[in-house]
Design a protein that fits this description.
Distance between the termini of chain A: 37 Å
Order of helices and strands of chain A: EEEHEEHEHHHEHEHEEHHEEEEEEEEEEE
CATH class of the largest domain in chain A: Alpha Beta
Largest sheet of chain A: 6 strands, mixed
Helix content of chain B: 10-25%
CATH class of the largest domain in chain B: Alpha Beta
Mean pLDDT of chain B: 91
Number of domains of chain B: 2
Strand content of chain B: 35-45%
Low-confidence stretches of chain A: 347-351
CATH topology of the largest domain in chain A: Rossmann fold
Low-confidence stretches of chain B: none
Radius of gyration of chain A: 24 Å
Oligomer: heterodimer
Structural class of chain B: alpha+beta
Number of strands of chain A: 21
CATH topology of the largest domain in chain B: Rossmann fold
Strand order of the largest sheet of chain B: 6-7-8-3-9-10
Helix content of chain A: 10-25%
Distance between the termini of chain B: 30 Å
Structural class of chain A: alpha+beta
Mean pLDDT of chain A: 89
Number of domains of chain A: 2
Strand order of the largest sheet of chain A: 6-7-8-3-9-10
Shape of chain B: globular
Chain lengths: ~350, ~350
């Protein structure tokens, strides 16, 4: 893959705290790379290091074939969109968007500025807002303008730091689609940072899963969701989270400590950690009884919280039948969708 | 018999903004009611009116048969949980939780008993000596919840209490709040803009927009039988698909027709001819060889457990929900059908369901 941006062994420390450790990452020339991780994982530091707002303590950043590890932010030709829209509230939308084009050193003719502005405004469908003060915009409009201000510069790389986090859920859903289409039309690479697994899965060409300053896995959304390398990665994707059960092989089946059979035998032996996603367990057809504790009607699906096999599991079922707390069910794990890890893989089970 | 009752409650601010425009609401004792709507719909103002943090400009608020409309906030006996945890930074977790009891003058053995009880119930044993600054966001919010739950007030009022948490913490907190509420049986009014949160928590969802109630009902009812186009779009992810068309009288019955007859559904009862809207949820749109609505795939949203496929058709853009292993290429031509039992009809002018 032709990497537009390449991070080689990036490390960053704040005092004794290692914010980033040995980050190796490539972003393709026409790729949307999502960096997914919980609060404090180092996502924003990573983005700021790429932008030049922080300087890497170790490693090298190569962008368009050039080493930019120590280049100034201005020389990097990247556009940064923050979680907080950071528009000048008293300025009109037009003035806010023109601002980066009128920065010192950018000798753009007024006609060229007007042309860029019209192009961006049309792309983001904010033509009607241009003369309005930023303070009068709704949250969704503000974020569109903030993105507009980033794209008028026609940068070589977009860096977006949780740009939808402060918006209503419904608006987030619409804007995440818009952003994907926008990026596709512009053909400019993007790094998109988020803690929202639905955004990561639906938007990313690839996802880099970050935890405590380290990259745990990089892959397509399908790969990190279906074939997570560790339980820690598995737990970061999927809602409700993947079910984890300590199992051992006994008499041709996988059982939990109480000798309760949870799944027919697959490859593997001894004690393992079984990961199975809520949608990969059918409520009926299994060997061991469970009892529904909570039944949530989510519209298109049911989410069941079930006491089963000495623990609690989530099951997601398509609508059709009605489920009630107290119902006895027989969970059936789909062995083709289950994941088995060595039990000492990491200690997520106790977290 | 309703425990909390709002009658034609209005709030107009001094600058003329009519934030709440005549809300009627009745919550039964022990009911978990969620106010759901976009920013600016009046849901938080409604909650603050019930708390007494705002004063209603018209209407009446009743709790347990008593008019509290003009009662000051402190006299209302409500437990309030905000989005921002608002813990006292100089008090440890245990002191924070005990604070409401201290200010009520609850004496020692009783106070300790109740604080211990709520600490056990919310699993905070390991945190009691820590200070808020040493806690993660999720733990701070659990402490804030514990502080509200150390008393058993007449009402819990919660204003987007999960808003600032990471996604996986949100689900845990959701289940915790629901379990607590079921155990305690305290009537709860809860505000959110997140329809998924609303669906999972509520006995009843009240969908608001523009300072008014659009629909009030159990989650399944508002999802399956939305009262209008706004509710149909707002509830569900993605929202309901809409197709504009016409009602015509054909072969002895009213039919909905759109896209030159590519979409045609008979209605159960006769209806005046004219413009209308068909609504269908993404999970009831199917790709079938015999599908009558042709289109082109413009977007494939992978969500792990499923995919949302967005298709450009003569009826506009339609979203459909398919299994995660069903793959479509961008630009692929598909033919769509709708589940005839699951289509809904709305008036084109008012947007109301027919």
């Amino acid at each position: 893959m032709a990497g537009a941006l390449e991070l080689r062994g990036i490390g960053k420390h704040f005092g004794a705290l290692a914010a980033l450790c040995d980050i190796n990452l490539q972003v393709g020339a026409d790729e949307l790379l999502v960096v997914l991780g919980p609060t404090g994982a180092g996502k924003t530091t990573l983005l700021r290091t790429v932008a030049g707002l922080e300087t890497a303590d170790e490693g090298q950043i190569v962008f368009g074939g050039q080493d930019i590890t120590h280049a100034t932010p201005a020389a990097r030709d990247m556009a940064f969109v923050f979680q907080n829209f950071s528009l000048y509230p008293d300025w009109s939308v037009r003035r806010n968007m023109e601002f980066p084009l009128k920065a010192p050193g950018r000798d753009l003719a007024p006609a060229a500025i007007a042309e860029r502005l019209a192009w961006a405004a049309e792309l983001l469908q904010i033509e009607a807002l241009l003369e309005r003060p930023a303070a009068q915009l709704s949250g969704g409009e503000m974020q569109r303008v903030a993105i507009g201000r980033a794209i008028v510069r026609q940068p070589q790389l977009f860096l977006l730091d949780e740009p939808l986090t402060n918006l209503d859920a419904k608006l987030r859903e619409a804007l995440r689609l818009e952003l994907v289409v926008l990026r596709r039309n512009l053909g400019i690479p993007m790094i998109y940072v988020t803690h929202d697994q639905a955004e990561a899965l639906s938007m990313g060409d690839r996802i880099a899963v970050l935890s405590e300053g380290r990259i745990l896995q990089v892959g397509t959304p399908e790969t990190v969701y279906r074939k997570p390398l560790s339980p820690l990665v598995a737990r970061q994707l999927g809602q409700p989270a993947i079910n984890l059960l300590e199992v051992r092989r006994q008499n041709g089946a996988w059982v939990v400590a109480e000798d309760v059979q949870v799944m027919a035998a697959t490859e593997g032996e001894g004690s393992m950690l079984l990961g199975v996603r809520p949608e990969d367990i059918a409520p009926l057809g299994g060997q061991s009884a469970g009892k529904i504790r909570v039944a949530e009607d989510m519209g298109a699906t049911w989410i069941l919280l079930v006491d089963w096999a000495g623990t609690e599991i989530h099951i997601a079922v398509e609508k059709g039948q009605t489920w009630r707390p107290g119902d006895e069910i027989y969970p059936l794990v789909n062995p083709r969708r289950a994941i088995l890890w060595e039990t000492d893989h990491d200690q997520v089970l106790r977290r | 018999m309703s425990f909390l009752k709002l009658e034609q409650v209005c709030k107009t601010y001094d600058d003329g903004t009519a934030a709440v425009q005549g809300i009627d609401l009745a919550c039964a004792a022990g009911e978990f009611v969620v106010l759901l709507g976009p920013s600016g719909c009046g849901k938080t103002t409604t909650l603050r009116l019930v708390a007494g943090l705002e004063k209603a400009t018209a209407g009446r608020i009743e709790v347990a048969g008593k008019d509290i409309t003009d009662l000051p906030a402190a006299a209302r006996d409500v437990g309030f949980v905000f989005q921002f945890y608002a813990l006292y930074p100089h008090l440890c977790v245990r002191q924070n939780i005990a604070f409401p009891l201290d200010s009520m003058g609850v004496a020692r053995p009783e106070k300790d008993r109740r604080v211990d009880e709520v600490i056990g119930r919310l699993g905070l044993e390991a945190l009691t000596r820590l200070y808020p600054g040493q806690l993660s966001g999720g733990d701070q919010q659990r402490v804030a919840l514990a502080r509200a739950m150390v008393r058993t007030p007449q009402l819990y009022l919660m204003d987007e209490p999960l808003g600032t948490l990471d996604a996986d913490r949100r689900l845990q907190m959701r289940e915790l709040i629901r379990a607590q509420q079921l155990t305690m049986g305290v009537t709860t009014l809860y505000v959110t803009h997140d329809q998924e949160e609303a669906m999972s928590l509520a006995d009843r969802v009240v969908i608001m927009e523009g300072g008014k109630v659009r629909q009030s009902g159990p989650p399944a009812q508002v999802y399956d039988h939305p009262a209008d186009l706004f509710v149909a779009h707002f509830v569900g992810s993605p929202g309901m698909n809409f197709i504009a068309g016409e009602f015509v009288w054909e072969e002895g019955q009213t039919c909905f027709i759109a896209a030159d007859g590519a979409v045609k559904y008979p209605l159960e009862r006769p209806l005046a001819q004219g413009k209308g809207v068909l609504g269908v949820r993404p999970e009831f749109v199917r790709v079938e060889a015999a599908g009558t609505v042709a289109g082109e795939v413009v977007m494939d949203e992978y969500l792990g457990s499923c995919r949302n496929i967005h298709v450009h058709t003569a009826c506009g853009r339609l979203a459909l929900r398919v299994g995660d292993d069903q793959r479509f290429g961008l630009g692929e031509r598909v033919a769509l059908n709708f589940d005839a039992e699951q289509v809904r009809f709305f008036a084109a002018d008012t947007g109301e369901k027919l």
